[in-house]
Design a protein that fits this description.
This protein has about 200 residues and is of the alpha/beta class. Helix content is about 35%, strand content about 15%. A 6-stranded parallel sheet has the order 2-1-3-4-7-8, with helices on both faces. A two-stranded antiparallel ribbon has the order 5-6. The relative contact order is 0.18.
């Protein structure tokens, strides 16, 4: 089924100014596909973030592919299962309400925008509301993991997404080293790459 574009979903305390987001934006611009990409600046509260993502999906129309990083991978999984969409997950968080926020409640600062906000129990409850069962559709999901992820234990995602198409690389980090070189794979998965000979972005 033909896709209508890509919705990129950034992670916790991140923004469209993050490394992977800016690389994807630049790559799509070079290929004349900027109008097929949405990279919303997500609100820190999950309920508002999901509402923003629903708007981005509706704005593209059709059936966009979701590309989610870290906490964005958790959001992408929920939305992909809810709407039957394809999703490419990069070092995704697995049920973060259970593990990720232990000891993190309290003041937060967005790494890119400098916005200060308070992480509360209501944020954690809102994340719990998004939990879904492990997806099993290898055709709809690709999961990219690097074993050197210093923020999340890649083995949690490896187990949770074992029914999906898993790509595990030794080393790397939470930001996913080499993402820029894999951008043609992202667009190919989304069905947007006009040619297998598309140039990589300069860097």
């Amino acid at each position: 089924m033909k896709t209508s574009g890509i919705v990129y979903i950034h992670g916790f305390n991140s923004a469209p100014q993050s490394g992977k987001a800016t690389q994807l934006i630049a790559f799509c611009e070079r290929l004349g596909l900027a109008d097929r990409l949405r990279v919303p600046a997500l609100h820190h509260h999950p309920r508002q973030a999901i509402a923003q993502l629903q708007e981005a999906i509706a704005d593209l129309g059709g059936r966009p592919v979701l590309v989610g990083s870290s906490l964005g991978g958790y959001y992408a999984t929920h939305l992909a299962e809810r709407h039957g969409l394809k999703a490419l997950l990069v070092n995704p968080a697995v049920n973060p309400h259970r593990l990720l926020f232990d000891g993190y409640l309290g003041p937060q600062t967005n790494l890119y925008t400098g916005e200060r906000w308070e992480l509360t129990e209501d944020h954690v409850q809102a994340l719990a509301e998004l939990e879904v069962a492990p997806p099993q559709d290898a055709e709809r999901f690709q999961v990219w993991l690097q074993t050197g992820d210093e923020t999340l234990d890649y083995r949690l995602a490896q187990a949770f997404y074992q029914g999906c198409s898993l790509h595990i690389e030794e080393g790397g980090d939470h930001g996913f080293q080499g993402f820029a070189e894999r951008l043609p794979d992202v667009l190919a998965f989304a069905g947007l790459l006009p040619s297998a000979e598309a140039e990589l972005p300069e860097h």
